[in-house]
Amino acid sequence: MSDHIALVPASNWVELRTTDADWAAADPAVLGTLLTHAHLIRAFEEVVLELAMDGLVHGPAHSAIGQEGGAAGSIVPLTAADQVNGSHRGHHQFLAKALGYLTPNGIDPQAELTPEIDTLLQRTLAEILGLAQGFCSGRGGSMHLRWEEAGALGTNAIVGGGVPLAAGAAWAHKHAGTDAVAVSYFGDGAVNIGSVLETMNLAAAWKLPLCFFIENNGYAVSTTVNEATAEPRLSARGLAFNIPSWKVDGMDPLAVYLAMNEALAHMRAGKGPTVIEADVYRFFHQNGGFPGSAFGYRTREEEQSWRTRDPLELLGTKMQQRGLIDAAGILALRNRIKASMAKAVAALTEADPNGKAGKKRIRPELWPSPDFRNVGVRGDLSELNGARTEEQASFSGKLDTRKFIDVVADVMDRRMSVDPSVVVMGEDVHRLKGGTNGATRGLKDKFPDRTLGTPISENAFVGLGGGMAMDGRFKPVVEFMYPDFMWVAADQVFNQIGKARHMFGGDIEVPLVLRTKVAMGTGYGSQHSMDPAGIFATSPGWRIVAPSTPFDYVGLMNAALALKDPVLVIEHVDLYNASGIAPVEDFDYQIPFGKAAVRRAGAEVTVLTYLSMVAHTLEAVEQTGIDAEVVDLRWLDRASIDWDTIEASIKKTNNVLIVEQGSIGTSYGGWLADEIQRRYFDWLDQPVQRVSGSEASPSISKVLERAAAARTEEVVEGLKQVMRDKGAA
Ligand SMILES: Cc1ncc(C[n+]2csc(CCOP(=O)(O)OP(=O)(O)O)c2C)c(N)n1
């Protein structure tokens, strides 16, 4: 029989329950503020549900009625410098954080509401209704409420999606030398999603001041906690990552307040993240104004028993017992808030002239203009004004023949030397002489705090980078070891980072650089051999650069780092060990924004290509003797691509061949061919032709891998096909 030694978690795990002594000792001003927050949230949510029942809320209205205690209790202790983000059910936290910002000394429940609070209620309601005066100009709605100034970083429609972003804010707080914290709110359903668990691990490993606040309302839509997990004590999640964890009754706002104060002491002392699980109950269904029991997944009796534990009642009763307010005072508070909400509703809606008596409509003049739909998908590029740009042909600095990969490391070394905000992160970027290829050579030694080797958690660490970028104090350069890992991190890359600027109103900046290398030809097989250009080019928000020479790499990386948008920098292993003309000491120029490079002038066909396929194309042109114009696109996304150069070339050659290496399915050329045919149909002698890889991803077998990817031979064939088909269309 073996010995069995019981092991225990390294971190504390406690349930905090209030005592009579806690209630007796609680600061009256804190209790008054908690009561006012809770009533403001309740009355606000009641109006949202009324408007939803009237059909005026477009989309879901996830009300927090019943859950006010968790938000008020945890946010009242925060300072204006602390930040929060949340989930689809986030009105309550948004309002509490905004109220805390507007009234840093708390709110007296017996005082009049200030005009600032009236405005807050109206603008929040306006956002939920999708109106121009809302905090995100009506773009965000109920599920994307952001008011950065107040420390409300944004609610999120992807369950768990905001959590990595909050870690980025926490990283920035810590490394800026402040004691501010971030709090990320999510439901019981979110504790089982990877982004949350990955971020718990990352935040603990890096000791980030981040509170994972679980609002356990017992249901993810209709699925119970017990159905979804074998460990329904959700605060236990923290223990797996050595995070101290609290469980509290979220219907008791004082318990939440006290637990948050303990968690804040831990985080502000630099000891790392915390978990708080607050048991709460939503009095209504997932969204809208019907009770959950109407949908059959819970009983009316259960709902009734939770309603007897209403956090507003508890606070009111306890305050009355201490003589801090009386029933009339509470009623007056509620009436004042209802009056403010009525004013907000009157400002945003009016009688519907075409409807039955009493039917309301949104005031038509308050909608955003339809022209606004695409404004702010990316920034306005003003950040590039005055940038020093260079082309190799006119460069006056010293040039030499150098290995591409050395130049990759050099330019980052230079940027990190002159810009203390640049932070490099990724798997093994801090070891192995600069990651798996040497791209980050020397950075860890020179910049130990800004060269971060990450755990294998692409979703969490790129999301953390996104949060850092949105924070703005640091400039993340994130590396994905292989492009295919973008699928692992797809939520953060595409739903969060790519959409953030637009979704939150069009004017927030997301200056993140994502580096990755195409590895076709190295035998790494189906899951490591994609070219990500096509997927990023068809996803909103991203800019893409793809340097084919070391000289361009320097200038495109510098431009990427200067931009206030997320930029994908695509590299290629074939190029890493190739040599080319590159600067030796001047790494401070940019390649002109949105400018392609004509690598060979020609009259017969325009070849549009990028990255390693530029050299293959030039080789193919040489071999065939076909007089092709070879355009190295350099900037690939639809907002940065050089239409002027493309147009001039097409008008000259009247034939187009798009050349890329990767699989046809997720290829880059699809959208480009479509766009070219729309724009230049009259100038084309034949349909746009394409060279790409096959349908399947390249396999490990050398022969199959070669057959699946395009290289010089395929371009030769493509050029010949164009010539055969010329004029035949
Ligand atoms: C990744 C993802 N999966 C599914 C959904 C659809 N969805 C929205 S809310 C929700 C339930 C979430 O439950 P929980 O996290 O407990 O939060 P609650 O609604 O109870 O506040 C689901 C399944 C989503 N938005 N995101």
UniProtKB/TrEMBL annotation:
Ranges where the Transketolase-like pyrimidine-binding domain occurs = 402-578
Does this entry carry the keyword Oxidoreductase?
yes
Q: Which InterPro entries match?
A: DH_E1, THDP-binding, Transketo_C/PFOR_II, Transketolase-like_Pyr-bd, Transketolase_C
Which Gene3D superfamilies does the record associate with it? 3.40.50.920, 3.40.50.970
Organism domain of life: Bacteria
Q: What GO MF terms are annotated?
A: oxidoreductase activity, acting on the aldehyde or oxo group of donors, disulfide as acceptor
Briefly, what is this protein's role?
A: E1 component of the 2-oxoglutarate dehydrogenase (OGDH) complex which catalyzes the decarboxylation of 2-oxoglutarate, the first step in the conversion of 2-oxoglutarate to succinyl-CoA and CO(2).
Name of this protein? MFS transporter
**Native species of this protein?**
Noviherbaspirillum sedimenti
Cite the source lineage.
Answer: Bacteria, Pseudomonadati, Pseudomonadota, Betaproteobacteria, Burkholderiales
